[in-house]
Amino acid sequence: MDPTQQFLLFLLVGVAATLSLATNSPVPQRPAGCTPREREALLAFKRGITNDPAGRLASWKRGNHDCCRWRGVQCSNLTGHVLELHLQNNLPEYYSDFEFKVTALVGKITTPLLALEHLEHLDLSNNNLTGPAGRFPGFIGSLRNLIYVNFSGMPLTGMVPPQLGNLTKLQYLDLSRGNGIGMYSTDIQWLTHLPSLRYLDLSNVNLSRISDWPRVMNMNADLRALYLSSCALTSASQSFSHLNFTRLEKLDLSDNDFNQPLASCWFWNLTSLTYLDLIMNILPGQFPDSLGDMKALQVFRFSSNGHSIIMPNLLRNLCNLEILDLGSLSSCNITELLDSLMHCLTKRIRKLYLWDNNITGTLPTGVGKFTSLDTLDLSHNQLTGSVPYEISMLTSLAKIDLSLNNLTGEITEKHLAGLKSLKTIDLSSNQYLKIVVGPEWQPPFRLEVARFGSCQLGPMFPSWLQWMVNIKELDIWSTGITDQLPHWFWTTFSKATDLVISSNNISGSLPANMETMSLERLYLGSNQITGVIPILPPNLTLLEIQNNMLSGSVASKTFGSAPQLGFMDLSSNNIKGHIPGSICELQHLQYLNLANNHLEGEFPQCIGMTELQHFILNNNSLSGKVPSFLKGCKQLKYLDLSQNKFHGRLPSWIGNFSEVQILILNNNSFSGHIPTSITNLAKLARLNLANNNISGVLP
Ligand SMILES: *[C@@H]1O[C@H](CO)[C@@H](O)[C@H](O)[C@H]1NC(C)=O
Ligand SMILES: *[C@@H]1O[C@H](CO)[C@@H](O)[C@H](O)[C@H]1NC(C)=O
Ligand SMILES: *[C@@H]1O[C@H](CO)[C@@H](O)[C@H](O)[C@H]1NC(C)=O
Ligand SMILES: *[C@@H]1O[C@H](CO)[C@@H](O)[C@H](O)[C@H]1NC(C)=O
Ligand SMILES: *[C@@H]1O[C@H](CO)[C@@H](O)[C@H](O)[C@H]1NC(C)=O
Ligand SMILES: *[C@@H]1O[C@H](CO)[C@@H](O)[C@H](O)[C@H]1NC(C)=O
Ligand SMILES: *[C@@H]1O[C@H](CO)[C@@H](O)[C@H](O)[C@H]1NC(C)=O
Ligand SMILES: *[C@@H]1O[C@H](CO)[C@@H](O)[C@H](O)[C@H]1NC(C)=O
Ligand SMILES: *[C@@H]1O[C@H](CO)[C@@H](O)[C@H](O)[C@H]1NC(C)=O
Ligand SMILES: *[C@@H]1O[C@H](CO)[C@@H](O)[C@H](O)[C@H]1NC(C)=O
Ligand SMILES: *[C@@H]1O[C@H](CO)[C@@H](O)[C@H](O)[C@H]1NC(C)=O
Ligand SMILES: *[C@@H]1O[C@H](CO)[C@@H](O)[C@H](O)[C@H]1NC(C)=O
Question: What GO annotations for molecular function exist for this entry (predicted)?
Answer without folding.
Answer: protein serine/threonine kinase activity
